[in-house]
Specification:
Layout: E1 2-6, H1 11-19, E2 26-31, H2 37-46, E3 51-53, H3 56-60, E4 67-70, H4 77-86, E5 90-94, H5 101-113, E6 118-121, H6 128-133, E7 143-151, H7 157-161, H8 177-193, E8 198-205, E9 211-219, E10 224-230, E11 238-243, E12 246-251, E13 259-264, E14 267-271, H9 281-292, H10 296-319
Parallel strand pairs: 1-2, 1-4, 2-3, 4-5, 5-6, 7-10
Antiparallel strand pairs: 7-11, 8-9, 9-10, 11-12, 12-13, 13-14
């Protein structure tokens, strides 16, 4: 599995470090904007590949590349994924999958039509702890409440307060707390319980209409979920699933799922199944295995999940009257 990487955002070094640990994945190229060429060459030297592109189409014409990994600003995920699929490349795109439901449906249908792999890189779904907790849910009785909090003060928030709007705080570029950080909470819950009947979003909006923090409320038939995501303040992170016979607590942020406590009748069992320091390793192991074994059906099951999450995120965003430029296309 040979990767061409798009972008040099903060997630890209983590990606490159993760694939160093996986035998069957190799990065062979990177595509960046012209001002980033020198930095890209340094990255290429460090990770032992030599192809640096500044024209995306030229990288997509490189026959050595099987997969394109898209690690750029949120608003460009759809455009870059679509073009790669049209060139016959398989695609891994960072979260959020797209900006709108329509964009998600289009690239999913394009991948299925052309029998290509398309993955959303969302670490929580592939965490060994998250996978293991699923079998414990029936043991805690009827679910009544779920509460989650992923709050992390952004290093870019100070600049935002001083009037410098970087992509993470720009609704024109599909930024904001919901899509950047609370999306992990949504993936966690929707992955276990599917789509909610009702979706509400109470958000703290900044001077340009971006959500700097907020609370998503999901209403299911028999239980209620509240999910906090914040980039303007910090808090201990967790998700707790409360049932009539006990509860399950995920400790730490959902993108890592550091450990899981299962508490039933005052007896505590703790799951600590993560074996890699880099939390991206597990998802890339899964991507490579599905590709190597040609498990398209499993890939498309994950895409169906990504679509459910995107529908939930859009419903939340519209409830808070948050408008992206992608909504107007």
């Amino acid at each position: 599995m040979k990767l061409g990487i798009v972008g040099l955002g903060g997630i890209v070094p983590q990606c490159l470090e993760s694939i160093k640990e996986i035998e069957y994945i190799e990065c062979v190229a990177i595509c960046v904007r012209e001002p980033k060429v020198q930095l890209a060459k340094e990255v290429a030297t460090k990770y032992q590949f030599n192809k640096v592109y500044t024209v995306y189409d030229e990288m997509l014409m490189d026959d050595e590349i099987d997969f394109v990994y898209i690690g750029i600003i949120n608003s460009l995920h759809y455009q870059y994924a679509k073009k790669a699929l049209e060139y016959g490349k398989h695609v891994i795109t960072e979260k959020p999958f797209t900006s709108t439901v329509e964009e998600a449906e289009e690239i999913i249908n394009l991948a299925i039509r052309n029998k290509l792999f398309l993955f959303e890189a969302i670490t929580v779904l592939y965490s060994p702890n998250y996978i293991a907790l699923k079998k414990y849910i029936p043991q805690i009785g009827d679910i009544k409440l779920i509460q989650g909090n992923f709050s992390q003060y952004s290093s870019r928030y100070g600049k935002y307060l001083n009037g410098e709007v970087l992509p993470a705080f720009d609704p024109k570029l599909s930024g904001g707390a919901l899509y950047d950080i609370n999306i992990y909470n949504i993936h966690f819950v929707v992955g276990l319980f599917g789509e909610a009947k009702d979706v509400l979003y109470n958000a703290n909006l900044g001077y340009n209409g971006v959500d700097t923090s907020g609370i998503v409320t999901l209403k299911y038939d028999n239980f209620i979920v509240t999910l906090i995501g914040a980039k303007d303040s910090s808090s201990p992170c967790h998700i707790i699933i409360q049932g009539t016979k006990g509860y399950i607590r995920m400790n730490g942020s959902p993108n890592i799922c550091e450990s899981i406590d299962i508490v039933i009748e005052d007896k505590i069992e703790t799951l600590k199944n993560n074996s890699h320091k880099n939390h991206m390793v597990n998802e890339f192991i899964a991507f490579e295995e599905m590709y190597r074994l040609n498990q398209l059906d499993q890939c498309y099951d994950y895409l169906a999940h990504s679509l459910k999450v995107m529908k939930t995120a859009v419903r939340a965003r519209k409830d808070a009257n948050i408008i992206f430029d992608a909504d107007c296309i």
